[in-house]
Structure formats: structure tokens, C-alpha cells
């Protein structure tokens, strides 16, 4: 079998490259790896698998479908079959069955590697999205805010929590506003995470206000029986900021239409 | 790699925290997850020390597909826990602690398994996966 | 066993925990601190845990006990510098340290004590 593959290398690879959408160099390299594996008795497939994983990964990244990716491997069967038919020896045909089985396995392996690579891409993107969607902004000296927008899941709320607490240490801010104006719904788990954030901030020596609570959300929270206890909640970010100003001893004065003077008082 | 420790004094509890920390870093747990699993380990081995006078800890790196995690097994040959449900309730204790050790540790990890036979001892297995 | 030094600054006592304490050292610190509050007539106690990487229920309970003890001895206690990871873990553990005053760092802790104690120095 190996002999036949070796003798007709040029012909088979050319035929293969014609039938599938893949660069000839890549296929030749793969062909030689398969040949090597067959000549060694098919025991050690580590190199071959490495090659296929690389092929699947690059294709997953570029956007080929998984079927296209594994078809590239299956295409070798068709290309080689032409040689086998020309030979028409039963021994060779039997060998071809074994060969076909090997190629099937390899094709399925590509499929798996492809799925894995795709999953990794999705995970990376989810992580990037998390980073993007949770900014901690400074509202005033000593006052931070986290404007949350979109659906909150457990993972995202946890990231917010960690980022906010770290920002408290970095900036030395003693007040924080968690604004949920842009959050469509709050479930038990998310509410628990928000509460935990407030408690953790307290342990560190900072006070959190939760703002942007819409009537529906207030209704859900009360219906779910979640105790907010002595945690300060405000309907708007402006109210929360005013509260934080009062607590930190900042006084805002002046005629709103013309100009605003802000004076900080030492606590 | 498996790491093992025997807990016979409160100094050993400190050593366990150090041991679990190095394993947690090796597995790639985030700083917060490191802190959680070390704290859970501290609670569990102290429980073994308080209730059984002596305990053993095994730390293993475990894998599940692409995920890696840390598994701790804390084993003692103490009096055992007659009512597990009750023991996991916050505030419940037969000792002098706060009664947060078991229930609290369960919240700090991803998987929690408690096996106890009265008179024969207790084995707690906890796992934390890297995110 | 590690003994944590207790520093005096005006009518404040300052304790900075720099190493991972075993339970015995934690209990000793608790006793030393109570004795020091009385013998030195301190009005405030600051416990700096910014270097502490792990606070389990035992250490957490010590912090709460110290705060309660200080109140009985007519002093205020503040825990300063708790790390985010430690704070999250304590909340998850179910330890909210109610009754313990906290501040982000030593400086803010001192300011808080001056504020609540109304101590004229």
C-alpha cells in the first residue's frame, strides 16, 4: 500500500489538490505524513494529528465550515481510488479499504479539532466582550461609577464586582455608584451578586449606592423576596451622585442655568 | 502532581494554606479563585483539627476537557457528622467556632462532596475550576 | 510563633499584620491588644491587613472580637486595607463583620477615627 502511495505521489497529490479547495504544499505535507504513518504500520499518529489540528485551526479562524475542512481530508480517498482502480488487484483493493478507514478517522479527527478551535475562538470573544462592557468610570474625586448596560449574567456581574473593588483600592475612592439603568431585568442570582459587591466594598471601607432602579426591577426584587437591607438605592444616577456628594462632604451650589460652582469641604 | 500534608497543629494549617496557594497558582486560578480555595482549605483542615485532633490533606490537579482545576481531599478519623444537612447550615456548630466552616467552604468552591460515618470519620472533597 | 508588634501613635494603637498568622498567634494578638488598649489608654485601634492574603472564619472572628472588645474598653477599632479578593471571599463565606468599622487604607482609617471619636489631639 505504502509503495503504491509512494510511487504515485505526484499524480495523487495533483488530483487531490484539484478536487479540494486547499493549497498543494499543505496537502503534500499532509500526504507525506500519512505515508509515513502507513509505512510505520499506522501506530504513531502524533505528528499527523498535530498537522491536522493546525490545518483545522487555521481554517476555523478564516471561516471555513467544518464540512469543508474535513472534506479536504476525505478528498484524498477519491484521488487515490483512481490509482487503485487502474491497478485492479484484489490485494490492493483490500489495502484500500484499510486506507479508507484511516482517512475516515483522520477526517473525523479534523472535525473534532475544528470544533475545539471554534470553541476557543468563541470563548476568547466572550472574554473580550466582558472586558469591553464593564467600564469603571470616575465621576468625581473619590466617587466611582459602574454603568451597567445589557443583560447581566452571573459571570459578567462577577467581573464587574472584581473590577470595581480593584478600582476602589487603586483610586482610594470611598464611594461608588452601581447604575443599572441599562439593565432590562434582574434575577435572584444577579441581585445576590450586586448585594455581595456592596458588602465586599463595605468590608474594604467604601460605600456603594445602587442607582437606576426602574419600577419593574423594584417589583421583581421585592417579589423575589431579596433583602436589600440598609443598602442605599436611588432611581437615577443623578440622585446617587447627589447622595455621594452629601456623604463625602462636597457641596454643589449656584444657579443651574448660568454656572455651577463646586466646593469640596474637608471632612 | 499530588501534594500531601498532615495536619496536627495550628501551624500546619498555615503550611496547608501555603501548599494550596502554590498548587492554585500552578493550575492558573485567578487571584480571587486562589483566595477562595485557600480559604476553603483553611476552614476544612481546621475543622479536621478541631473535631478529630488530626487530619490529612491531598491536593490534586484535575482536568476536564480543556478545563483545569484543583481538587482537595480532607480526611479525618474523628467522630464524624451525624446530621450532614444540619452541619452545612450556617451558624450551626457543636464546637466553639462560628459554624461557617462547612457551609461557607461549600460556597467558595465549584464542587463539594461530604462523606461522613459517625464514629469513623469525615472526608470532604472540593474542586475549584479555573475560569 | 509570630508575635505582632503593637505601635502607639498619640492615642491610637496601630497593628500591621505582615505574615500569615497561625491560630495561636491570632489569639495572642487579641489578648495583647486588649491589654494595650487599657494600659496605654488608647482611644482608637487600627488593624492594617493590607498584607494579609487570607482571612478565614477564624481570623475574621478575631477581627470582630477585637472590635467588640474595644467598644467595651471605650475605644474604636478600624480594620484597614482589606484586599478585594479577601473581601469577596469573606462575603461568600458568610462573614459580614457587622459592627467592624473599615477604611481603605491607614490614612483614611486615622481620619475615620478622628471623626467618630471626636478626639482632640
Automatic annotation (TrEMBL), chain B:
Which SUPFAM superfamilies would you find in this protein's record? Answer: ATPase domain of HSP90 chaperone/DNA topoisomerase II/histidine kinase
What are the protein's UniProt keywords? Kinase, Serine/threonine-protein kinase, Transferase
Q: Recite the lineage of the species.
A: Bacteria, Bacillati, Actinomycetota, Actinomycetes, Streptosporangiales
- Name of this protein: Anti-sigma regulatory factor
Q: Give all residue intervals belonging to the Histidine kinase/HSP90-like ATPase domain.
A: 32-131
Which SMART domains does the annotation name?
HATPase_c
Keyword Kinase among record annotations: yes
Offer an example of a GO molecular function term for this protein: protein serine/threonine kinase activity
UniProtKB/TrEMBL annotation, chain C:
> Per the record, a Pfam family?
STAS
Q: Which residues form a coiled coil?
A: none
Extract the Gene3D superfamilies matched here. Answer: STAS domain
> Which positions fall inside the STAS domain?
2-113
The lineage's top-level taxon is Bacteria
- Protein name, UniProt field: STAS domain-containing protein
> What taxonomic lineage is listed for the species of origin?
Bacteria, Bacillati, Actinomycetota, Actinomycetes, Streptosporangiales
Amino acid at each position: 500500500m505504502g509503495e503504491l502511495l509512494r510511487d504515485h505521489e505526484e499524480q495523487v497529490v495533483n488530483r487531490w489538490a484539484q478536487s479540494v479547495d486547499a493549497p498543494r504544499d499543505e496537502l503534500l505535507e499532509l500526504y507525506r505524513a500519512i505515508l509515513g504513518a502507513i509505512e510505520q504500520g499506522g501506530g504513531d499518529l502524533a505528528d499527523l494529528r498535530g498537522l491536522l489540528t493546525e490545518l483545522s485551526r487555521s481554517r476555523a479562524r478564516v471561516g471555513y465550515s467544518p464540512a469543508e475542512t474535513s472534506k479536504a481530508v476525505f478528498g484524498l480517498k477519491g484521488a487515490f481510488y483512481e490509482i487503485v482502480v487502474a491497478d485492479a488487484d484484489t490485494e490492493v483493493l483490500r489495502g484500500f479499504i484499510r486506507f479508507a478507514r484511516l482517512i475516515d478517522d483522520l477526517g473525523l479527527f479534523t472535525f473534532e479539532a475544528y470544533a475545539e478551535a471554534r470553541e476557543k475562538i468563541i470563548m476568547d470573544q466572550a472574554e473580550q466582550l466582558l472586558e469591553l462592557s464593564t467600564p469603571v468610570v470616575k465621576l468625581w474625586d473619590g466617587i466611582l461609577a459602574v454603568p451597567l448596560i445589557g443583560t447581566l449574567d452571573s459571570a459578567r456581574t462577577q467581573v464587574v464586582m472584581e473590577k470595581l473593588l480593584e478600582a476602589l483600592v487603586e483610586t482610594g475612592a470611598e464611594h461608588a455608584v452601581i447604575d443599572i439603568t441599562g439593565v432590562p431585568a434582574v434575577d435572584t442570582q444577579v441581585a445576590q451578586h450586586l448585594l455581595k459587591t456592596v458588602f465586599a466594598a463595605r468590608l474594604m471601607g467604601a460605600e456603594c449606592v445602587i442607582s437606576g432602579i426602574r419600577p419593574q426591577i423594584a417589583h421583581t426584587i421585592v417579589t423575589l423576596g431579596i433583602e436589600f437591607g440598609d443598602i442605599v438605592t436611588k432611581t437615577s444616577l443623578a440622585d446617587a451622585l447627589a447622595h455621594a456628594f452629601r456623604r463625602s462632604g462636597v457641596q454643589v451650589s449656584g444657579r443651574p442655568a448660568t454656572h455651577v460652582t463646586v466646593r469640596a469641604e474637608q471632612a | 502532581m499530588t501534594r500531601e500534608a498532615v495536619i496536627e497543629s495550628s501551624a500546619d494549617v498555615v503550611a496547608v494554606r501555603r501548599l494550596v496557594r502554590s498548587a492554585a497558582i500552578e493550575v492558573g486560578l485567578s487571584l480571587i479563585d486562589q483566595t477562595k480555595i485557600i480559604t476553603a482549605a483553611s476552614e476544612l483542615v481546621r475543622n479536621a483539627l478541631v473535631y478529630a485532633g488530626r487530619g490529612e490533606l491531598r491536593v490534586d490537579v484535575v482536568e476536564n476537557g480543556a478545563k483545569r482545576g484543583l481538587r482537595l481531599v480532607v480526611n479525618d478519623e474523628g467522630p464524624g457528622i451525624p446530621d450532614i444537612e444540619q452541619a452545612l447550615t450556617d451558624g450551626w456548630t457543636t464546637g466553639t467556632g462560628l459554624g461557617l466552616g462547612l457551609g461557607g467552604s461549600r460556597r467558595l468552591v465549584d464542587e463539594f462532596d461530604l462523606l461522613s460515618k459517625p464514629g469513623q470519620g469525615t472526608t470532604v472533597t472540593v474542586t475549584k475550576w479555573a475560569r | 510563633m509570630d508575635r505582632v508588634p503593637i505601635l502607639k501613635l498619640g492615642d491610637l494603637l496601630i497593628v500591621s499584620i505582615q505574615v500569615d498568622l497561625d491560630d495561636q498567634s491570632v489569639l495572642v494578638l487579641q489578648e495583647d491588644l486588649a491589654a494595650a488598649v487599657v494600659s496605654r489608654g488608647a482611644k482608637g485601634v487600627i488593624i492594617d491587613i493590607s498584607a494579609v492574603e487570607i482571612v478565614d472564619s477564624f481570623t475574621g472572628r478575631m477581627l470582630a472580637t477585637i472590635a467588640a472588645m474595644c467598644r467595651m474598653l471605650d475605644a474604636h477599632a478600624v480594620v484597614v486595607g482589606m484586599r478585594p479578593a479577601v473581601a469577596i471571599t469573606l462575603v461568600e463565606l458568610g462573614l459580614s463583620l457587622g459592627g467592624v468599622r473599615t477604611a481603605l487604607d491607614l490614612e483614611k482609617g486615622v481620619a475615620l477615627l478622628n471623626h467618630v471619636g471626636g478626639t482632640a489631639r
